[in-house]
Amino acid sequence: MLKLMRTPLKYVQGQGALLHVYEEIKNLGKSFLFICSNSGYKSCHEKIEKSFEGSDAILRFEIFGGISSIGEVERMRAMVKEHGIDCVAAVGGGSAIDTAKATAHYENLPVVVIPTVVATDAPCTGLSVIYNNDGSFSNYIFYPKNPDAVIVDSDIIANAPVKFLVAGMGDALGTYFEARACEKAKAPSLENGGITKSAMALCRLCYETLLEDGYKALKACENKVVTPALEAIIEANTYLSGVGADNGGLAVSHSVYNGFTSLKECEDTMHGSVVAFGTIAQLVLEDAPKEEFYQVLEFCASVGLPVTLKEIGVTDKERVRIAAENACAEGESIHNMIGDVTPKQLYDALITADVLGQEYLNQR
Question: Within the chain, which residues score under 50 in pLDDT?
Answer without folding.
Answer: none
